[in-house]
# Entry
Amino acid sequence: TEKIMWFLIGGEDANGIADGNLTCTSANTTVTKGTSRVDENNGTAFYSYKIDISHETQTLLTFKVEVEDKSGLISQKSFTVNVDNTAPTVNINSHSDGSNVYGTDAKTIRGTSADSNNVEKIEYALTKDNAAPASGYIEISNPLNWEIKFEDNNKLNDKIATLYSVKNEAFSEAPYDVYLWLKATDIYGNVSEPKALHLRVLAMGDKPK
# Structure
């Protein structure tokens, strides 16, 4: 995920500003100079900078600003920026991996998410194999203490029918593998790796054989 910041630096001097420069102490942060605006009448100049922190691993970045006037004199200032590059965590509390569940019953999957800042959203998707999908996720309300309800016309059997392209009357007695994938996103766009809960769904419920 691309993570971009924009900074505007500037200076003022009676002799006029010759140039402005911004650097970062971290080699993982890319600093690109953008547009400039120089006003010769009042001796001011402003420079925009694009800051790419997509590959940054540090959490505290130090930047240095240098502004040079037309006499060759240079003023310097440094400042720091806190960077959140840590993805949220997702916990599943209601079921253990590999649990057997009845597809005929209403089921609620519950869990929590956490982050050093706010969790913006949590999403889930279902697959029949152990491979995280790239798309098709559904957002869940209340991301910090989330729950997913499979009930009414949205039971796990309904999901099996879609995932396995099988009609209810043709369900097998053998359990169906269903993988519930969850991922969380914080307010700065950090996204967790999809976490899977493997369920073995008994589509026939507890009906006698």
Summary: The longest strand covers residues 176-186. The chain has one helix and 14 strands. The radius of gyration is 27 Å.
